[in-house]
Amino acid sequence: MERRLRVNCSRFAMLFLTVLRHRGIPVRKRAGFDWDGWIHEIPEYWDENRRQWVFVDPDPATRAPIRTFLARTRQADLTIADTDAIKPGEAFTPGFLAWRLSRAGQADVNQFKVHGHDGMSSVRVALLQDLDSMNKSELRTFDAWYELITAPFSQLDDSALNWLNDAAALIADSDARFNEMRTFYTTSAYGTTIHKRLLQSPS
Amino acid sequence: MLDGLAVDVDKLIDVIGGLLLHPHTAHDLYGESEPPDRGAGELAVTRMLQRLALSIHGR
């Protein structure tokens, strides 16, 4: 009898995070899109030998495309930071990259999918969840606790869009601008709302 | 409990794959057409994480 728990990618990632953190290995969750364009969450851990962040898909059933991608491109040291090497539709496209490419007209926004959203609205979800994770707010895939993520995308004003642009830029350069990214998040209405909500969560 | 798990990433993924199954994979393997109730799945994993946490902090 098959007794494995049926859970989505978010929980695969959380188990992986739990074990590595217990072992003292820096690790964080990332949100983005898989090779089929569906929202996807995977861990990114710090490889001390290579001195860089490395992403990995902890679901044995879904990590094959990433492995194939790495082998095909012969970039064994590929990381999420290597934005020039990652093309949407291959392996994993982090939320911040999907946002930047879509806003620049360099990616077909309709390829990115999140249940209940379409087009740029889907990309917005992945960007914000990527930002959450980079700031230690590790939500479940379908958590949405603020109007920035729930409002119709067409209703976002220039201020909101600029804030999202800034978020994507900070994530893209997070190694060099880590403290700036953390301040950006923790002093924002979005970040403080998410943090308060996490503290209220029963589990 | 966690101390018994491998640090090697590939081995750890094998362990995780023995505990969890994505609904899409269940569909491919067993023809399960509908994912189980999301809330139930989340609660089950939360309990498992709590057990893992207890094994860490209870020592």
Structural description of this entry:
- The complex is a heterodimer of chains A (203) and B (59).
- By secondary structure, chain A is α+β, with helices and mostly antiparallel strands.
- Chain A has one domain (9-200).
- Helix content of chain A is 44%, strand content 12%.
- A four-stranded antiparallel β-sheet of chain A has the order 4-3-2-5.
- Chain B has one domain (2-57).
- Chain B has three helices and one strand, in the order αβαα.
- The mean pLDDT of chain B is 68.
- At the A-B interface, strand 1 and helix 1 of A face helix 1, strand 1, helix 2 and helix 3 of B.
SSE inventory with pairings:
The complex is a heterodimer of chains A (203) and B (59).
Chain A: E1 5-6, H1 9-22, E2 27-33, E3 39-47, E4 52-55, H2 64-73, E5 93-94, H3 95-103, H4 119-134, H5 147-150, H6 158-172, H7 178-186, H8 189-200
Helix pairs in contact in A: 3-4, 3-6, 4-6
Chain B: H1 9-19, E1 20-21, H2 23-30, H3 38-57
Briefly say what this structure is.
With 203 residues, chain A is of the alpha+beta class. Chain A has helices at 9-22, 64-73, 95-103, 119-134, 147-150, 158-172, 178-186, 189-200, and strands at residues 5-6, 27-33, 39-47, 52-55, 93-94.
How much of the sequence lies in strands of chain A comes to 5-15%
Please give the radius of gyration of chain A in angstroms: 16 Å
| Main structural class of chain B | mainly alpha
User: How is the biggest beta sheet of chain B arranged?
Assistant: none
> What's the main sheet of chain A like?
4 strands, antiparallel
Order of helices and strands of chain B: HEHH
Tally of domains of chain A: 1
The count of strands of chain A amounts to 5
Shape of chain A: globular
Strand order of the largest sheet of chain A: 4-3-2-5
* Percent of residues in beta strands of chain B: under 5%
Show unreliable segments of chain B. none
Ends apart, CA distance between termini of chain B = 10 Å
Fraction of residues in helix of chain A: 40-55%
Radius of gyration based on Cα positions of chain B: 14 Å
Provide the residue-averaged pLDDT of chain B: 68
